[in-house]
């Protein structure tokens, strides 16, 4: 009987363990790695089919879930439309509405053919409310037609460094032509946002518009008044949120690209195909997950020329046939080197190691002039070069010639007989 009771208890134990293992939630917090002490996140923990976390400072991809696979991007397209408008036009210009623009599907401002608007007002309509008719009006104003503006968008994408992006519409509505569908990748979308907030000459204007809570304006005729409200919930969701743009079409699903600044670090999250109705909130969950992951795991470490010089002191550099005064010895002259450059701040993940490699000439022929480059110090992070410092001679070394030796002997003899 005792044996039967023991078997029964063991059966219940294993049954309970099995049930618990099968009821663990699919979406869990990032797990800490025992090897590095940093958190890790699994692609399966995100709702988005395609996602990228990027360091805005360098463009380095910190996390990717199918980040280089092409997919429709819906109204996140409008960040490109906006930055091109800011770079190529005067915000005070008047825009006349065409029949083509006014016939765009929802979501739209409701403009009528022949109406005129100040371009700056339309940029708020574009980015806060994501109006499709506004996007077409802006495109036609800048390039004369949507087709010509399409070319402008694709040229700009190539300049930014996008690898697999193809624009057809200025508003992001699903479209296809002989070259393919309107699409991008999560990595390319993050690069475009990086350009808009860090590299574009109009970056400050872009941020000002996309951070505005609401904007009210009238057409130039003064016959109609419009009010726009910012629908980017991320701006009030996390401290340090900078900007962002939502998007949705039947083919694209919910999409989002946003940026956050914290302790001097700026991170970008790009999400494509992040759920379909009724899962509108998935994009906010994924954005919070990735931004929190970034802030907890990546921090700046400084690299200074002084660190390089300290390491270089252990490496001897000799100048053959060198002379710096005194007895003209035949032995090589040992000289010091200095590192040129400024302090660099490198964003690194917890557990990653910055490595320094010196490439320094062990022997050089005289003469050597102060400032001559004798080598280079390279810093790498996870195998990628992140900084380098030229190693320069700290002093002059002239050539030990026969004349120098004779001059030394003569002066020595004269001094002894004085």
From TrEMBL:
The protein's annotated pathway: Cell wall biogenesis; peptidoglycan biosynthesis
One Pfam family from the record: Peptidase_S11
Peptidase S11 D-alanyl-D-alanine carboxypeptidase A N-terminal domain segment(s): 43-269
Residue ranges of domain Peptidase S11 D-Ala-D-Ala carboxypeptidase A C-terminal in the record: 346-398
InterPro entries for this protein: Beta-lactam/transpept-like, Peniciliin-bd_prot_C_sf, Peptidase_S11, Peptidase_S11_C, Peptidase_S11_C_sf, Peptidase_S11_N
Catalysed reactions, semicolon-separated: Preferential cleavage: (Ac)2-L-Lys-D-Ala-|-D-Ala. Also transpeptidation of peptidyl-alanyl moieties that are N-acyl substituents of D-alanine
Signal peptide boundaries: 1-30
Gene Ontology MF term list: carboxypeptidase activity
EC number(s) recorded for this UniProt protein: 3.4.16.4
Claim: Cell wall biogenesis/degradation is one of the keywords in the record: yes
The entry's keywords: Carboxypeptidase, Cell shape, Cell wall biogenesis/degradation, Hydrolase, Peptidoglycan synthesis, Protease, Signal
Top-level taxon: Bacteria
Family as reported in the entry's similarity comment: Belongs to the peptidase S11 family.
General function of this protein: Removes C-terminal D-alanyl residues from sugar-peptide cell wall precursors.
UniProt-recorded name of the protein: serine-type D-Ala-D-Ala carboxypeptidase
């Amino acid at each position: 009987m005792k044996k039967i009771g023991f078997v029964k208890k063991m059966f219940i134990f294993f049954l309970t363990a099995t049930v618990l293992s099968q009821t663990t939630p699919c979406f869990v917090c990032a797990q800490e790695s025992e090897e590095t002490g940093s958190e890790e996140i699994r692609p399966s923990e995100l709702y988005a089919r395609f996602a990228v976390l990027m360091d805005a400072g360098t463009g380095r991809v910190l996390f990717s879930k199918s980040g280089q696979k092409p997919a429709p991007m819906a109204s996140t397209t409008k960040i490109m439309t906006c930055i091109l408008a800011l770079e190529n036009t005067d915000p005070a210009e008047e825009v006349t509405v065409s029949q083509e623009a006014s016939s765009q599907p929802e979501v739209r401002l409701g403009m009528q053919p022949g109406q005129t608007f100040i371009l700056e007002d339309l940029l708020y309509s574009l980015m806060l409310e994501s109006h499709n008719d506004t996007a077409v009006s802006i495109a036609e104003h800048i390039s004369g037609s949507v087709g010509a503006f399409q070319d402008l968008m694709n040229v700009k994408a190539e300049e930014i460094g996008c690898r697999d992006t193809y624009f057809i519409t200025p508003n992001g509505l699903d479209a296809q032509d002989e070259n393919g569908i309107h699409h991008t990748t999560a990595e390319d979308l993050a690069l475009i946002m990086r350009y808009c907030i860090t590299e574009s000459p109009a970056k400050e204007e872009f941020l000002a518009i996309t951070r505005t809570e609401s904007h009210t304006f009238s057409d130039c005729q003064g016959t109609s008044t419009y009010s726009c409200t910012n629908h980017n919930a991320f701006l009030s969701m996390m401290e340090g949120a900078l900007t962002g743009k939502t998007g949705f079409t039947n083919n694209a699903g919910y999409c989002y690209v946003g940026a956050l600044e914290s302790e001097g670090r700026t991170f970008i999250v790009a999400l494509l195909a992040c759920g379909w109705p009724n899962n509108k909130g998935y994009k906010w969950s994924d954005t919070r997950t990735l931004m929190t992951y970034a802030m907890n795991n990546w921090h700046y470490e400084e690299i200074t020329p002084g660190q390089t010089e300290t390491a270089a002191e252990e490496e001897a550099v000799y100048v053959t046939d060198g002379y710096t005064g005194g007895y003209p010895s035949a032995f090589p002259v040992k000289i010091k080197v200095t590192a040129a450059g400024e302090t660099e701040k490198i964003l690194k993940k917890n557990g990653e190691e910055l490595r320094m490699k010196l490439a320094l000439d062990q022997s050089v022929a005289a003469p050597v002039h102060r400032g001559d480059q004798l080598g280079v110090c390279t810093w790498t992070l996870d195998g990628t070069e992140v900084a380098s410092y030229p190693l320069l001679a700290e002093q002059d070394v002239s050539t030990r010639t026969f004349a120098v030796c004779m001059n030394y002997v003569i002066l020595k003899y004269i001094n002894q007989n004085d």
